[in-house]
Amino acid sequence: MPRGTSKKQETPRAEDYLEAVYHLLEDKGYANTVDVSERLEVKPPTVSNMVAKLAARGYLLHQPYRGMRLTESGEKIARSVIRRHEIISEFLSMIGVEGGVAYEDTEGIEHHVQPTTIYRIERLVEFLRRNPSHLAEIKKYVSK
Ligand code: CA
Questions:
Q1: Which of 50, 72, 77, 113 has its CA 20 to 30 A from that of 24?
Q2: With helix as H, strand as E and coil as C, how does 98-119 read?
Q3: What is the whole-number distance in angstroms between the Cα of residue 111 and the centre of ligand 1?
């Protein structure tokens, strides 16, 4: 995860917590408050508050000393935001937006984009992947 850009990162949103827990469970099979706090660069008490809210809403289960598990609905949201992240990130890279700017903008856009919009961006990304000459032309044009 790219870090260290000068611009202050936005406060992580509920979706980012579910996403972080999902990645931690995938990567190490375990997710506790400290792991999430390191991953999202927020203080452990902030993580605890959000985790309690997410647990109350039925998105995750948190057992002290045993870590967190996502419920079915929590996992669905995590997968959805991860998918949005990947599509937007690829799209921005296709139009030549990279590095910290690409990461920060992806983190912002991924929370606001509606399903119909992400579907069309995904279709466009697919089209450009299959048509590298179009992609090259667009990339050149938007970089001028
Ligand atoms: Ca995110």
A1: 113
A2: CHHHHHHHHHHHCCCCCHHHHH
A3: 8
Interior/surface letters 85-94, b for 16+ CB within 10 angstroms, e for the rest: bebbbbbbeb
DSSP 60-103: EEEETTTEEEE-HHHHHHHHHHHHHHHHHHHHHHHTT--HHHHH
pLDDT in tens, the chain (144 residues): 444 444 445 678 899 999 999 999 999 999 999 999 999 999 999 999 999 999 999 999 998 788 999 999 999 999 999 999 999 999 999 999 999 999 999 999 999 999 999 999 999 999 999 999 999 999 999 998
Residues with CB under 5 A from ligand 1 (ion): 16, 107
